[in-house]
Design brief:
By secondary structure, this protein is mostly helical. It has three domains: 180 residues, no CATH class; 187 residues, no CATH class; 54 residues. It is built from 19 helices and nine strands. The chain is elongated and about 100 Å long. A hairpin with a 7-residue loop joins strand 7 and strand 8. Helix 2 runs parallel beside helix 6. It comes from Elaphomyces granulatus. This is C2H2-type domain-containing protein.
């Protein structure tokens, strides 16, 4: 089991099963492992796909498909173990079935291949299988029985995760959006260089998804402004209306529509506003790093937030259109003394700037509009000490290193472990990927931050430091939450789409779809290398009905062989 409270029970037994599958294949040869045998109907009505004949290699492939489908052998933060946190009953069901597979693979290892071959060449007079052949086939049937149930459970969990498919970046974003996601992660990395790389990536994902939501919302709002020709009998086409209150479509785009020429999928609307303060800071020198007395990692970050300017309002207007979502805003509110608060409140409704920072949380890509909602979720789901625990997994290498070297991502750790120059005293060959997969869970540890350290700055905020000795703990925690919330608002502004003219305060401005996508970073900035697979489908299980399903509730197999091959380990 990995360090800390991370459970790896499913990974451990699944990896053991995979190793035993390979051992059986290499020790028994291709002739025996590809030998077909007749399978029993073990579905019991739970599966519509019944395998009548199979061989050992078919079962091995079935196991690999299941592992890939569920992430049982995936990296920690995207693994099946991470999804099953908080569901010990469901986890134990997986473990019990995997142990059944492991036990029967161990039985296959002690079966003599020559004995099975000789018995198959000389069958008994009554046509019945010999003892050794029966052990081989019955063990395979038991493995098939367990695999059938594993696939059932895996499908149920995937269906539960699919309920929030709209928040799955890998299925929701286009190729252009994936490019933006890399740039967004790099922006987060530049603004918060001391934050963990996994946090860079997650926040980059949220920026990309939020931006996609805003673009789709604006696109839908734009479609609603297209007027239908009341005299047309066919499906109404999009007509250009010469209305000064409507954004004018550019001549080039109008010509493309008329000619039927396909339009580029890369749009200027997909670019963020380079005039916003968040993007201006990209080209500024990096903030100098100061060391804190309490935290070993520290940085200083500006807490101020610079919002886009309010839309300009004419004297005779009752409403003015938001340049980002096209919603009609109250002109009276935008003229009044509280116009800034009104405008910022509207932007927060559009952006929903707050998001859960725990990647394994079921709410990991659910956005919050109000700070109180977000804080309530973070403290209720992850305790009031959540800033100390979020994104705190570290990989380490203690081979030929004093002190121990630490790595923020598994990718960095794997690269280091396979680097011969990093281990000059190592006589053996660098470890293989399979060996590293087994070693990874034992070379992880959770490093809890010091009290009141911001997980983005990796430093105690300057406003909190004067109150450290005499301040009330609850008040200090609230100040830290406020500090982190400001960071999230600042980052959320990167999601705002590019508005023609550079600012949001221009009236009647349209989004130009013609210009090509420009680089978002200066040449010195580098995109962040992901620390885990590109999939971010790390949603936890949301199917409590599985808690009432137990292995014993499935219909028993039809033959007596299961009494010997399905028993639990003593």
């Amino acid at each position: 089991m990995a360090s800390g409270d991370q459970d790896t029970a499913v990974f451990d037994i699944a990896y053991e099963c995979l190793s035993e599958f390979d051992k059986v294949y290499h020790s028994h040869g291709r002739d025996l492992t590809t030998r077909l045998f007749e399978m029993d109907d073990l579905s019991g009505g739970y599966s519509c796909h019944i395998v009548r004949k199979c061989d050992f290699m078919g079962l091995r492939n079935s196991f690999i498909f299941w592992a890939d489908y569920t992430g049982a052998l995936s990296l920690m933060e995207s693994s099946l173990d991470a999804r099953l946190q908080g569901f010990p009953d469901i986890s134990s069901m997986f473990v019990e079935l995997l142990e059944m597979i492991s036990r029967n693979l161990s039985r296959l290892l002690i079966v003599s291949p020559s004995a099975v071959k000789s018995e198959s060449d000389a069958p008994t007079s009554d046509g019945a299988s010999s003892n050794t052949s029966r052990i081989w086939e019955d063990a395979l049937r038991a493995i098939d029985y367990a695999l059938d149930r594993l696939h059932f459970l895996g499908g149920a969990i995937r269906k539960a995760s699919a309920k929030r498919l709209e928040y799955n970046v890998t299925s929701y974003l286009t190729e252009e959006d994936f490019l933006f996601r890399k740039y967004a992660a790099a922006i987060v990395k530049r603004n918060f260089p001391q934050a963990r790389s996994s946090l860079h990536k997650q926040l980059g994902d949220t920026i990309a998804v939020r931006r996609k939501f805003m673009l789709r919302k604006r696109s839908h709002a734009t479609n609603l402004t297209v007027r239908r020709d009341p005299h047309a009998r066919k499906s109404p086409e999009r007509l250009s209306v010469d209305d000064p209150s409507k954004p004018e479509v550019s001549g080039h785009r109008r010509a493309m529509r008329a000619s039927g020429e396909p339009q580029s999928a890369v749009t200027k609307a997909s670019k963020p506003n380079r005039q916003t303060p968040a993007f201006k800071k990209i080209f500024m020198p990096s903030t100098p790093i100061l060391r804190s007395m309490i935290s070993s990692m520290s940085s200083v970050h500006d807490d101020s937030i610079e919002y886009p300017e309010c839309p300009q309002v004419k004297d005779n207007e009752k409403h003015v259109q938001c340049s980002y979502c096209l919603k009609a805003l109250s002109a009276a509110q935008l003229r009044g003394p509280e116009k800034d608060n009104y405008w910022r409140s509207h932007l927060k409704e559009d952006l929903q700037p707050y998001v859960c920072l725990f990647p394994e949380c079921v709410e990991a890509l659910v956005f919050f509009t109000h700070q109180k909602e977000w804080i309530c979720h973070m403290e209720a789901s992850h305790s009031t000490d959540w800033p100390r625990k979020v994104h705190n997994i570290m990989w380490y290498c203690n081979m030929d290193h004093e002190p121990v070297e630490q790595f923020q991502s598994e990718v960095e750790w794997r690269t280091h472990m396979q680097d011969p120059y990093a281990h000059p005293n190592r006589r053996s060959k660098p470890p293989t990927d399979v060996q590293l997969a087994a070693l990874s869970t034992r070379k992880q540890q959770r490093v809890v931050r010091d009290q009141y350290v911001c997980p983005l700055c990796e430093n105690i905020p300057e406003k909190i430091q004067p109150f450290m000795k005499r301040g009330n703990g609850s008040d200090l925690a609230n100040m830290l939450n406020e500090h982190i919330a400001k960071h999230m608002i600042s980052l959320s502004l990167i999601s705002l789409p590019w508005i023609d003219g550079g600012d949001a305060d221009t009236e009647g401005k349209s989004i130009d779809f013609d210009e090509s996508f420009k680089r978002l970073l200066n040449p010195r900035s580098e995109p962040l290398t992901p620390s885990q697979p590109s999939e971010i489908d790390r949603l936890s299980v949301d199917c409590p009905w599985l808690l009432h399903v137990h292995v014993g509730n499935w219909p028993p197999p039809q033959r007596s062989w299961t009494g010997h091959f399905l028993e639990k380990t003593s």
